[in-house]
Amino acid sequence: MKNISVIGSGTMGNGIAHVFALFGYSVSLVDISGPALEKALNTIQKNMDRQVSKGLLTEDEKSAAVENIKIYTSLEEGVQNTDLVVEAATENLEVKLELFRNLDKFTPESCVLATNTSSISITKIAAVTNRADKVIGMHFMNPVPVMKLVEVIRGYATSEKVTKDIMELSRGLAKVPVEVNDYPGFVANRILMPMINEAIYTLYEGVAGIEEIDTVMKLGMAHPMGPLQLADFIGLDVCLSILRVLHEGFGNPKYAPCPLLVNMVEAGYKGAKTGEGFYKYTPGSKELVI
Ligand code: NAI
């Protein structure tokens, strides 16, 4: 695989394009929004500059990587000769299903279609294509250039060969891939989100305050960030929607979102991106530093 198309150039898409470009792939970055593409290119250059200043990259390697990236607002043009698509568009079922119907039409028959979805069923996405054996989850973590893990999610019909190829390709990007099966929340969010929900219940029931809960988890469990602050960074709306996927998918009340979380999202307190969640944020402080 040499030619990669990344669909969606937001938080995750620009990180994924960054990593593939650094490892010498020819990257077509596609977004419906021209300004989003321009912003993504700026972010990639800024993040690469940071890597240069830390001695992780030379100026020449940076220039070569930036040259590997081409941008497109047309999906059809951006995926014409591609070997692998990594879809990182907005987390919305209808958006993803429509994209995969089109990807199935526009990409070469041999092309593997991967999605970076956090919570949507790979099997459901694969079912709208005529190549379910070549549809797979590649769940990168934020920030992509820094985080080592890729959850490689096998849909019901994903082939053994495609799974092996994607595991191998992920290792080639200096990532650590972990193979998991396609059930709600996969592994990362199935374990993380109930922990965050429990932290919110602990606050809701008055067992302890925000900073106390986070301090217990940071100092007691050696977590780099407490669960309430982490929830703010992920976005409380995103946490709520993933908990709803778990709740509905398993039909088990243990995943029911805490009423405090529901209230906060309804009131517009969605975490760092809105300036307030469990903590208050000064504008722009959400960006994680690479
Ligand atoms: P984002 O909102 O930052 O970026 C989404 C981008 O997709 C936007 O630039 C938007 O213009 C574009 N887009 C929307 N519809 C499109 C279409 N039909 N064709 C092309 N581009 C389209 O979203 P973010 O956070 O980067 O998330 C992307 C995916 O990655 C989602 O599936 C999310 O669940 C997943 N994810 C997000 C993580 C995070 O920490 N933000 C972590 C792991 C996975």
UniProtKB/TrEMBL annotation:
<dbReference type="InterPro" id="IPR006108">
    <property type="entry name" value="3HC_DH_C"/>
</dbReference>
<keyword id="KW-0520">NAD</keyword>
<dbReference type="GO" id="GO:0008691">
    <property type="term" value="F:3-hydroxybutyryl-CoA dehydrogenase activity"/>
</dbReference>
<dbReference type="GO" id="GO:0006631">
    <property type="term" value="P:fatty acid metabolic process"/>
</dbReference>
<feature type="domain" description="3-hydroxyacyl-CoA dehydrogenase NAD binding">
    <location>
        <begin position="4"/>
        <end position="182"/>
    </location>
</feature>
<dbReference type="Pfam" id="PF02737">
    <property type="entry name" value="3HCDH_N"/>
</dbReference>
<dbReference type="Pfam" id="PF00725">
    <property type="entry name" value="3HCDH"/>
</dbReference>
<feature type="binding site">
    <location>
        <position position="273"/>
    </location>
    <ligand>
        <name>NAD(+)</name>
    </ligand>
</feature>
<protein>
    <submittedName>
        <fullName>3-hydroxybutyryl-CoA dehydrogenase</fullName>
        <ecNumber>1.1.1.157</ecNumber>
    </submittedName>
</protein>
<feature type="binding site">
    <location>
        <position position="31"/>
    </location>
    <ligand>
        <name>NAD(+)</name>
    </ligand>
</feature>
<comment type="similarity">
    <text>Belongs to the 3-hydroxyacyl-CoA dehydrogenase family.</text>
</comment>
<feature type="site" description="Important for catalytic activity">
    <location>
        <position position="139"/>
    </location>
</feature>
<dbReference type="InterPro" id="IPR013328">
    <property type="entry name" value="6PGD_dom2"/>
</dbReference>
<dbReference type="InterPro" id="IPR022694">
    <property type="entry name" value="3-OHacyl-CoA_DH"/>
</dbReference>
<feature type="binding site">
    <location>
        <position position="142"/>
    </location>
    <ligand>
        <name>NAD(+)</name>
    </ligand>
</feature>
<feature type="binding site">
    <location>
        <position position="118"/>
    </location>
    <ligand>
        <name>NAD(+)</name>
    </ligand>
</feature>
<dbReference type="GO" id="GO:0070403">
    <property type="term" value="F:NAD+ binding"/>
</dbReference>
<feature type="binding site">
    <location>
        <position position="91"/>
    </location>
    <ligand>
        <name>NAD(+)</name>
    </ligand>
</feature>
<dbReference type="InterPro" id="IPR006176">
    <property type="entry name" value="3-OHacyl-CoA_DH_NAD-bd"/>
</dbReference>
<feature type="domain" description="3-hydroxyacyl-CoA dehydrogenase C-terminal">
    <location>
        <begin position="185"/>
        <end position="281"/>
    </location>
</feature>
<feature type="binding site">
    <location>
        <position position="96"/>
    </location>
    <ligand>
        <name>NAD(+)</name>
    </ligand>
</feature>
<feature type="binding site">
    <location>
        <begin position="8"/>
        <end position="13"/>
    </location>
    <ligand>
        <name>NAD(+)</name>
    </ligand>
</feature>
<dbReference type="InterPro" id="IPR008927">
    <property type="entry name" value="6-PGluconate_DH-like_C_sf"/>
</dbReference>
<dbReference type="InterPro" id="IPR036291">
    <property type="entry name" value="NAD(P)-bd_dom_sf"/>
</dbReference>
<keyword id="KW-0560">Oxidoreductase</keyword>
<dbReference type="InterPro" id="IPR006180">
    <property type="entry name" value="3-OHacyl-CoA_DH_CS"/>
</dbReference>
